[in-house]
Amino acid sequence: MKKSPSIFGGACIIASVCVGAGMLGLPTSGAGAWTIWSTLIICLTMVVMTLSGWLLLEAYKHFDLRASFNTVTKSLLGNTVNVINNLSVYFVGGILLYAYTTASGGILSELMGNFMVLDSRIWSIIFVLFFSFFVWHSTRIVDRVSVILIIFMALSFIFSVFGLTANIDIGTLFDTQAVDADYAMYAMGLLPVALTSFGYHHSVATMRAYYGEERKAKLAILGGTMIALSLYLLWVWSIFGNLPRNQFAPVIASDGNLDVLLQALGNVIESSTVKQAINAFSIAAILSSFIGVGLGVFDFLADLFKFDDSKLGRTKSWAVTFLPPLILSVLFPLGFLKAIGYAGAVATIWACAIPALLAGKSRTLAKGKSGFIVGGGSVTILLVIIFGIVTALFHFLAMFNMLPTFKG
Q: Which residues cross the membrane (predicted)?
Protein backbone atom coordinates (compact mmCIF):
# COMPACT_ATOMS: atom_id res chain seq x y z
CA MET A 1 0.00 0.00 0.00
CA LYS A 2 1.36 3.41 -1.02
CA LYS A 3 2.19 5.66 1.94
CA SER A 4 0.26 8.97 1.98
CA PRO A 5 2.49 12.08 2.02
CA SER A 6 2.66 13.89 5.38
CA ILE A 7 0.71 17.09 6.08
CA PHE A 8 3.95 18.58 7.43
CA GLY A 9 5.77 17.98 4.12
CA GLY A 10 3.01 19.78 2.20
CA ALA A 11 2.92 22.60 4.78
CA CYS A 12 6.68 23.02 4.28
CA ILE A 13 6.19 23.34 0.50
CA ILE A 14 3.50 26.03 1.02
CA ALA A 15 5.59 27.83 3.68
CA SER A 16 8.69 27.75 1.49
CA VAL A 17 6.75 29.22 -1.46
CA CYS A 18 5.64 32.10 0.79
CA VAL A 19 8.64 32.78 2.96
CA GLY A 20 11.29 34.17 0.59
CA ALA A 21 9.39 37.20 -0.65
CA GLY A 22 7.94 38.09 2.73
CA MET A 23 11.03 37.68 4.86
CA LEU A 24 13.08 39.88 2.64
CA GLY A 25 10.44 42.41 1.56
CA LEU A 26 8.32 42.97 4.68
CA PRO A 27 10.84 44.75 6.95
CA THR A 28 11.60 47.42 4.34
CA SER A 29 8.04 47.90 3.05
CA GLY A 30 6.75 47.93 6.66
CA ALA A 31 9.27 50.49 7.92
CA GLY A 32 6.76 53.34 7.63
CA ALA A 33 3.93 51.44 9.34
CA TRP A 34 6.40 50.06 11.92
CA THR A 35 5.64 47.36 14.49
CA ILE A 36 1.94 47.48 15.47
CA TRP A 37 0.45 48.37 12.07
CA SER A 38 2.77 45.97 10.21
CA THR A 39 1.68 43.16 12.56
CA LEU A 40 -2.02 43.91 11.95
CA ILE A 41 -1.60 44.03 8.15
CA ILE A 42 0.43 40.78 8.03
CA CYS A 43 -2.12 38.90 10.20
CA LEU A 44 -5.11 40.16 8.17
CA THR A 45 -3.38 39.19 4.90
CA MET A 46 -2.61 35.67 6.20
CA VAL A 47 -6.30 35.07 7.07
CA VAL A 48 -7.63 36.32 3.72
CA MET A 49 -4.98 34.48 1.66
CA THR A 50 -5.66 31.19 3.49
CA LEU A 51 -9.39 31.56 2.76
CA SER A 52 -8.76 32.36 -0.92
CA GLY A 53 -6.56 29.25 -1.27
CA TRP A 54 -9.35 27.16 0.22
CA LEU A 55 -11.87 28.71 -2.21
CA LEU A 56 -9.61 27.64 -5.06
CA LEU A 57 -9.42 24.14 -3.60
CA GLU A 58 -13.23 24.05 -3.42
CA ALA A 59 -13.52 24.81 -7.14
CA TYR A 60 -10.95 22.11 -8.04
CA LYS A 61 -13.10 19.28 -6.61
CA HIS A 62 -15.01 19.02 -9.92
CA PHE A 63 -11.84 18.18 -11.85
CA ASP A 64 -9.20 15.52 -12.43
CA LEU A 65 -6.23 15.59 -10.01
CA ARG A 66 -3.85 16.66 -12.81
CA ALA A 67 -5.94 19.75 -13.62
CA SER A 68 -4.37 23.13 -12.89
CA PHE A 69 -5.51 26.75 -12.84
CA ASN A 70 -5.73 26.85 -16.63
CA THR A 71 -8.14 23.90 -17.02
CA VAL A 72 -10.38 24.87 -14.10
CA THR A 73 -10.70 28.58 -14.94
CA LYS A 74 -11.38 27.91 -18.63
CA SER A 75 -14.10 25.40 -17.78
CA LEU A 76 -15.88 27.45 -15.09
CA LEU A 77 -15.32 31.09 -16.15
CA GLY A 78 -14.71 30.90 -19.91
CA ASN A 79 -11.76 31.52 -22.21
CA THR A 80 -11.41 35.33 -21.88
CA VAL A 81 -11.17 35.25 -18.08
CA ASN A 82 -8.82 32.28 -18.39
CA VAL A 83 -6.43 34.17 -20.69
CA ILE A 84 -6.31 37.10 -18.21
CA ASN A 85 -5.75 34.66 -15.35
CA ASN A 86 -3.01 32.76 -17.20
CA LEU A 87 -1.16 35.98 -17.98
CA SER A 88 -1.40 37.15 -14.35
CA VAL A 89 -0.27 33.76 -12.93
CA TYR A 90 2.73 33.64 -15.24
CA PHE A 91 3.57 37.32 -14.68
CA VAL A 92 3.63 36.93 -10.88
CA GLY A 93 5.42 33.57 -10.90
CA GLY A 94 7.89 34.92 -13.46
CA ILE A 95 8.56 38.20 -11.63
CA LEU A 96 9.07 36.37 -8.33
CA LEU A 97 11.55 33.97 -9.97
CA TYR A 98 13.16 37.06 -11.55
CA ALA A 99 13.36 38.83 -8.14
CA TYR A 100 14.86 35.74 -6.41
CA THR A 101 17.32 35.19 -9.27
CA THR A 102 18.52 38.82 -9.11
CA ALA A 103 18.69 38.86 -5.29
CA SER A 104 20.57 35.52 -5.14
CA GLY A 105 23.27 36.93 -7.44
CA GLY A 106 23.81 39.97 -5.20
CA ILE A 107 23.94 37.97 -1.96
CA LEU A 108 26.14 35.15 -3.35
CA SER A 109 28.52 37.72 -4.82
CA GLU A 110 28.81 39.34 -1.37
CA LEU A 111 29.10 36.00 0.49
CA MET A 112 31.65 34.44 -1.88
CA GLY A 113 33.69 37.63 -2.43
CA ASN A 114 36.57 36.39 -0.25
CA PHE A 115 36.85 33.09 -2.16
CA MET A 116 35.84 33.82 -5.75
CA VAL A 117 35.20 37.20 -7.37
CA LEU A 118 32.47 36.83 -9.99
CA ASP A 119 29.88 39.26 -11.34
CA SER A 120 26.53 38.96 -9.50
CA ARG A 121 24.86 38.03 -12.81
CA ILE A 122 27.18 35.01 -13.18
CA TRP A 123 26.17 33.92 -9.65
CA SER A 124 22.52 34.28 -10.68
CA ILE A 125 23.07 31.94 -13.66
CA ILE A 126 24.88 29.35 -11.47
CA PHE A 127 22.10 29.58 -8.85
CA VAL A 128 19.31 28.95 -11.39
CA LEU A 129 21.03 26.16 -13.33
CA PHE A 130 21.91 24.25 -10.15
CA PHE A 131 18.76 24.60 -8.06
CA SER A 132 16.13 24.38 -10.82
CA PHE A 133 17.25 20.75 -11.27
CA PHE A 134 15.21 19.74 -8.19
CA VAL A 135 12.01 21.08 -9.78
CA TRP A 136 12.80 19.33 -13.07
CA HIS A 137 13.33 16.04 -11.20
CA SER A 138 10.01 15.67 -9.25
CA THR A 139 7.56 17.06 -6.66
CA ARG A 140 8.74 14.39 -4.20
CA ILE A 141 12.33 15.68 -4.27
CA VAL A 142 11.04 19.26 -3.84
CA ASP A 143 9.16 18.05 -0.73
CA ARG A 144 12.38 16.53 0.66
CA VAL A 145 14.51 19.57 -0.23
CA SER A 146 11.84 21.94 1.17
CA VAL A 147 11.85 20.10 4.52
CA ILE A 148 15.68 20.28 4.64
CA LEU A 149 15.61 23.98 3.70
CA ILE A 150 12.90 24.79 6.26
CA ILE A 151 15.02 23.04 8.93
CA PHE A 152 18.15 24.91 7.77
CA MET A 153 16.18 28.17 7.65
CA ALA A 154 14.79 27.45 11.12
CA LEU A 155 18.31 26.91 12.52
CA SER A 156 19.86 29.97 10.82
CA PHE A 157 16.70 31.91 11.72
CA ILE A 158 17.02 30.88 15.40
CA PHE A 159 20.67 31.99 15.46
CA SER A 160 19.75 35.26 13.69
CA VAL A 161 16.69 35.95 15.83
CA PHE A 162 18.41 34.84 19.04
CA GLY A 163 21.22 37.29 18.32
CA LEU A 164 18.75 40.01 17.30
CA THR A 165 16.20 39.44 20.10
CA ALA A 166 18.95 39.48 22.71
CA ASN A 167 19.60 43.07 21.61
CA ILE A 168 16.01 44.19 21.01
CA ASP A 169 15.49 47.67 22.33
CA ILE A 170 11.83 48.19 23.31
CA GLY A 171 12.14 51.90 22.57
CA THR A 172 13.37 51.08 19.04
CA LEU A 173 10.74 48.34 18.54
CA PHE A 174 7.88 50.74 19.39
CA ASP A 175 9.66 53.84 18.06
CA THR A 176 9.17 55.79 21.29
CA GLN A 177 11.60 58.54 20.22
CA ALA A 178 9.66 59.15 16.98
CA VAL A 179 9.53 62.56 15.39
CA ASP A 180 7.15 61.30 12.67
CA ALA A 181 4.56 59.25 14.59
CA ASP A 182 2.09 58.74 11.71
CA TYR A 183 2.22 54.98 11.19
CA ALA A 184 -1.29 54.12 9.96
CA MET A 185 -1.03 56.14 6.75
CA TYR A 186 2.01 54.09 5.66
CA ALA A 187 0.24 50.75 6.32
CA MET A 188 -1.58 50.97 2.97
CA GLY A 189 1.69 50.67 1.03
CA LEU A 190 2.54 47.43 2.88
CA LEU A 191 -0.49 45.52 1.51
CA PRO A 192 0.88 44.52 -1.96
CA VAL A 193 4.11 43.12 -0.44
CA ALA A 194 2.14 41.38 2.35
CA LEU A 195 -0.16 39.79 -0.27
CA THR A 196 2.85 38.56 -2.27
CA SER A 197 4.23 37.14 0.99
CA PHE A 198 1.29 34.72 1.10
CA GLY A 199 1.11 34.07 -2.65
CA TYR A 200 1.18 30.28 -2.82
CA HIS A 201 -2.00 29.85 -4.93
CA HIS A 202 -0.32 28.44 -8.04
CA SER A 203 0.72 25.54 -5.76
CA VAL A 204 -2.85 24.68 -4.65
CA ALA A 205 -3.36 22.30 -7.61
CA THR A 206 0.03 20.70 -6.82
CA MET A 207 -1.09 20.10 -3.20
CA ARG A 208 -4.40 18.55 -4.26
CA ALA A 209 -2.67 16.24 -6.76
CA TYR A 210 -0.04 15.37 -4.15
CA TYR A 211 -2.57 14.24 -1.51
CA GLY A 212 -5.26 13.03 -3.90
CA GLU A 213 -7.98 14.87 -1.92
CA GLU A 214 -9.05 18.35 -0.75
CA ARG A 215 -9.19 17.99 3.05
CA LYS A 216 -5.52 17.09 3.58
CA ALA A 217 -4.52 19.78 1.09
CA LYS A 218 -6.61 22.27 3.14
CA LEU A 219 -4.66 21.37 6.31
CA ALA A 220 -1.32 21.63 4.45
CA ILE A 221 -2.29 25.12 3.21
CA LEU A 222 -3.30 26.26 6.72
CA GLY A 223 -0.14 24.75 8.21
CA GLY A 224 2.01 26.46 5.56
CA THR A 225 0.47 29.92 6.01
CA MET A 226 0.71 29.62 9.81
CA ILE A 227 4.42 28.68 9.61
CA ALA A 228 4.97 31.65 7.28
CA LEU A 229 3.04 34.04 9.59
CA SER A 230 5.04 32.95 12.67
CA LEU A 231 8.35 33.41 10.86
CA TYR A 232 7.34 36.81 9.44
CA LEU A 233 6.30 38.26 12.78
CA LEU A 234 9.40 37.03 14.62
CA TRP A 235 11.64 38.35 11.86
CA VAL A 236 9.97 41.76 11.51
CA TRP A 237 9.93 42.31 15.29
CA SER A 238 13.59 41.27 15.56
CA ILE A 239 14.68 43.70 12.84
CA PHE A 240 12.47 46.57 14.02
CA GLY A 241 13.85 46.09 17.55
CA ASN A 242 17.45 46.47 16.32
CA LEU A 243 17.45 48.76 13.28
CA PRO A 244 15.91 52.15 14.12
CA ARG A 245 13.12 53.35 11.82
CA ASN A 246 15.13 56.37 10.65
CA GLN A 247 18.00 54.11 9.49
CA PHE A 248 15.92 52.47 6.74
CA ALA A 249 16.60 55.42 4.39
CA PRO A 250 19.46 53.82 2.36
CA VAL A 251 17.53 50.51 2.06
CA ILE A 252 14.36 52.26 0.83
CA ALA A 253 16.43 54.41 -1.56
CA SER A 254 17.86 51.21 -3.14
CA ASP A 255 14.34 49.79 -3.76
CA GLY A 256 14.82 47.27 -0.97
CA ASN A 257 17.89 45.55 -2.41
CA LEU A 258 18.81 42.80 0.02
CA ASP A 259 22.54 43.37 0.17
CA VAL A 260 21.82 46.96 1.32
CA LEU A 261 19.38 45.73 4.02
CA LEU A 262 21.93 43.14 5.21
CA GLN A 263 24.63 45.81 5.24
CA ALA A 264 22.41 48.20 7.28
CA LEU A 265 21.70 45.37 9.75
CA GLY A 266 25.41 44.52 9.89
CA ASN A 267 26.19 48.10 10.90
CA VAL A 268 24.04 47.86 14.05
CA ILE A 269 24.96 44.28 15.04
CA GLU A 270 28.21 43.69 16.91
CA SER A 271 28.47 39.90 16.47
CA SER A 272 29.98 38.51 13.24
CA THR A 273 28.28 35.14 13.99
CA VAL A 274 24.85 36.80 13.95
CA LYS A 275 25.72 38.61 10.70
CA GLN A 276 26.70 35.30 9.07
CA ALA A 277 23.52 33.62 10.38
CA ILE A 278 21.40 36.43 8.85
CA ASN A 279 23.22 36.02 5.49
CA ALA A 280 22.73 32.22 5.61
CA PHE A 281 19.06 32.67 6.48
CA SER A 282 18.54 35.16 3.63
CA ILE A 283 19.99 32.84 0.99
CA ALA A 284 18.00 29.87 2.39
CA ALA A 285 14.78 31.94 2.29
CA ILE A 286 15.41 32.91 -1.34
CA LEU A 287 16.34 29.35 -2.30
CA SER A 288 13.28 27.76 -0.67
CA SER A 289 10.96 30.26 -2.33
CA PHE A 290 12.74 29.90 -5.67
CA ILE A 291 12.20 26.11 -5.60
CA GLY A 292 8.61 26.35 -4.27
CA VAL A 293 7.48 29.06 -6.72
CA GLY A 294 9.37 27.28 -9.51
CA LEU A 295 7.44 24.07 -8.83
CA GLY A 296 4.06 25.86 -8.93
CA VAL A 297 4.88 27.69 -12.20
CA PHE A 298 6.39 24.49 -13.66
CA ASP A 299 3.18 22.48 -13.03
CA PHE A 300 1.00 25.36 -14.23
CA LEU A 301 2.89 25.70 -17.54
CA ALA A 302 3.03 21.91 -18.03
CA ASP A 303 -0.80 21.91 -17.84
CA LEU A 304 -1.12 25.04 -20.03
CA PHE A 305 1.13 23.75 -22.83
CA LYS A 306 0.13 20.07 -22.31
CA PHE A 307 3.76 18.96 -21.83
CA ASP A 308 3.84 15.34 -20.67
CA ASP A 309 5.71 13.93 -17.65
CA SER A 310 8.54 12.36 -19.69
CA LYS A 311 12.12 13.69 -19.40
CA LEU A 312 11.68 15.64 -22.65
CA GLY A 313 8.30 17.02 -21.52
CA ARG A 314 9.73 18.08 -18.14
CA THR A 315 12.71 19.70 -19.90
CA LYS A 316 10.30 21.79 -22.02
CA SER A 317 8.42 22.80 -18.84
CA TRP A 318 11.76 23.66 -17.18
CA ALA A 319 12.79 25.86 -20.12
CA VAL A 320 9.59 27.96 -20.19
CA THR A 321 9.61 28.26 -16.37
CA PHE A 322 13.20 29.27 -15.60
CA LEU A 323 14.87 30.68 -18.74
CA PRO A 324 12.76 33.86 -19.33
CA PRO A 325 13.20 35.17 -15.71
CA LEU A 326 16.93 34.32 -15.82
CA ILE A 327 17.48 36.14 -19.14
CA LEU A 328 15.56 39.22 -17.89
CA SER A 329 17.49 39.19 -14.59
CA VAL A 330 20.82 39.19 -16.43
CA LEU A 331 19.75 41.93 -18.86
CA PHE A 332 17.63 44.16 -16.57
CA PRO A 333 18.32 43.81 -12.83
CA LEU A 334 15.60 45.75 -10.94
CA GLY A 335 15.09 46.63 -7.25
CA PHE A 336 13.82 43.63 -5.26
CA LEU A 337 11.04 45.55 -3.51
CA LYS A 338 9.84 47.16 -6.74
CA ALA A 339 9.55 43.73 -8.40
CA ILE A 340 7.69 42.31 -5.36
CA GLY A 341 5.27 45.29 -5.40
CA TYR A 342 4.34 44.66 -9.05
CA ALA A 343 3.87 40.97 -8.24
CA GLY A 344 1.50 41.87 -5.37
CA ALA A 345 -0.69 44.13 -7.48
CA VAL A 346 -1.11 41.60 -10.30
CA ALA A 347 -1.40 38.69 -7.84
CA THR A 348 -4.72 40.14 -6.63
CA ILE A 349 -6.25 38.77 -9.87
CA TRP A 350 -5.39 35.10 -9.23
CA ALA A 351 -4.99 35.17 -5.44
CA CYS A 352 -8.27 37.01 -4.72
CA ALA A 353 -10.64 37.66 -7.62
CA ILE A 354 -10.36 34.35 -9.54
CA PRO A 355 -10.55 31.98 -6.48
CA ALA A 356 -13.64 33.86 -5.23
CA LEU A 357 -15.33 33.78 -8.67
CA LEU A 358 -14.46 30.10 -9.18
CA ALA A 359 -15.90 29.11 -5.79
CA GLY A 360 -19.04 31.18 -6.48
CA LYS A 361 -19.49 29.46 -9.84
CA SER A 362 -18.72 26.05 -8.33
CA ARG A 363 -21.54 26.47 -5.81
CA THR A 364 -24.10 26.95 -8.61
CA LEU A 365 -23.29 23.44 -9.91
CA ALA A 366 -25.03 20.35 -8.50
CA LYS A 367 -21.77 18.77 -7.36
CA GLY A 368 -20.71 22.09 -5.81
CA LYS A 369 -23.22 21.61 -3.00
CA SER A 370 -21.45 18.50 -1.71
CA GLY A 371 -17.89 17.59 -0.77
CA PHE A 372 -15.35 20.20 0.31
CA ILE A 373 -16.94 23.65 0.92
CA VAL A 374 -15.33 26.69 2.60
CA GLY A 375 -17.41 28.13 5.46
CA GLY A 376 -18.79 31.67 5.65
CA GLY A 377 -20.99 31.53 2.54
CA SER A 378 -21.06 34.61 0.29
CA VAL A 379 -19.42 36.77 3.00
CA THR A 380 -16.10 34.90 2.59
CA ILE A 381 -16.21 35.34 -1.21
CA LEU A 382 -17.01 39.06 -0.89
CA LEU A 383 -14.27 39.63 1.72
CA VAL A 384 -11.62 38.09 -0.52
CA ILE A 385 -12.70 40.16 -3.57
CA ILE A 386 -12.76 43.47 -1.61
CA PHE A 387 -9.34 42.75 -0.10
CA GLY A 388 -7.91 42.16 -3.60
CA ILE A 389 -9.40 45.37 -5.05
CA VAL A 390 -8.11 47.49 -2.15
CA THR A 391 -4.59 45.96 -2.37
CA ALA A 392 -4.29 46.56 -6.13
CA LEU A 393 -5.65 50.10 -5.75
CA PHE A 394 -3.05 50.96 -3.10
CA HIS A 395 -0.20 49.66 -5.27
CA PHE A 396 -1.20 51.79 -8.27
CA LEU A 397 -1.79 54.86 -6.09
CA ALA A 398 1.73 54.37 -4.67
CA MET A 399 3.14 54.02 -8.21
CA PHE A 400 1.77 57.45 -9.14
CA ASN A 401 2.97 58.99 -5.84
CA MET A 402 -0.59 59.42 -4.57
CA LEU A 403 0.06 57.58 -1.28
CA PRO A 404 2.18 58.84 1.63
CA THR A 405 5.70 57.42 1.14
CA PHE A 406 8.08 56.78 4.02
CA LYS A 407 11.64 57.82 3.10
CA GLY A 408 13.36 56.81 6.37
A: 7-28, 34-56, 76-100, 120-138, 145-163, 183-200, 220-240, 280-305, 317-336, 342-360, 372-398
